[in-house]
Amino acid sequence: MSEASSSSAAAPPPAPAPALDPEAIALMADEAPPEEMTLVLKWSGKEYTVRAMGDDTLLELKRRISELTDVLPKRQRLLYPKIMLNDDSVLLSSIPFKRNLKITMIGTVEEEIYVDQPDDPEVVDDHELFKSEVTAIKDNEVYKKKLKRRASQYKFKLLNPCREGKRLLVLDIDYTLFDHKSPAENPMELMRPYLHEFLTRAYAEYDIMIWSATSMKWVQLKMEQLGVLSNPNYKITALMDHLAMITVQSDKYYANKIFDCKPLGIIWAKFPEFYNEKNTIMFDDLRRNFVMNPQNGLVIRPFNKASKNRSRDKELVHLTQYLLAIAELEDFSKLDHDAWESFMENAKRRRHR
Predict the structure, then answer these.
(1) pTM summary value
(2) Vertex 66, ends 62 and 70: CA angle to 5°?
């Protein structure tokens, strides 16, 4: 009877797998395939094709799924035959996906996309990134290796050739050039004031790349809708999307804060004869996107509530003057872009002496 009772008793649940530390992730990442992965997701009666990289984590995959479905990563439950997909830090290259099997997702759409929720615990508050922590992240060998692999894997959408002797300006889209949340009948109503004038004047000294944390389809569509790709007064060198970003972790002060960032090293590795840390500047409304290259980032004031702020927003007018003023300098990396307005004030005083 004791044998029967013991055999009928429920088996204890398996112990959860231990979390992977960054060194373990780096070790597995060395085995990641150099090509993109294509996975098929089933959700709500539809199938979606998801592109990812072999050294992406499961969390990064969830973020790409969120772009397609609007289901927040924290609301996603991914199911795959005989495999537990519950460790967000695991690398996709370590999961034995098979071509004839599909991932099934259980999840509910919420009204707000996760990247815009200020209280989302998955998103790091930019003001919480102390300088010492930024240094710890950008100097981490794990992330340097990941950047190197991503640089070898990523495929740029090159629209025009790089120009010898030009500096490089890298621009975000949402809230930098475009208010992507306000309602409008025409996308032009959400365009940041003076955008075309800004790009025209910048183009005289800078090659221009657009880098957004969205898919390439939406990057190209937004730029087409705003007339950026067809303007005769300037040319865009390249478009970049979320697949060029890498995931890092802020763990010195704020444990378990995982977020994507935009490492400019991917561009420098692809075009070393044209661009480097001395001649590149990037505008973005999110400071965390600069974490791998803080000396090259300028935090632009976000453009939102377009109908209210359109008539008084002159951020691009002032930043045009700054770009042209520093274009004469040999090394951008020695500048404090947080103090760009003070730089312009001092330059103005010197001109009036």
Answers:
(1) 0.74
(2) 155
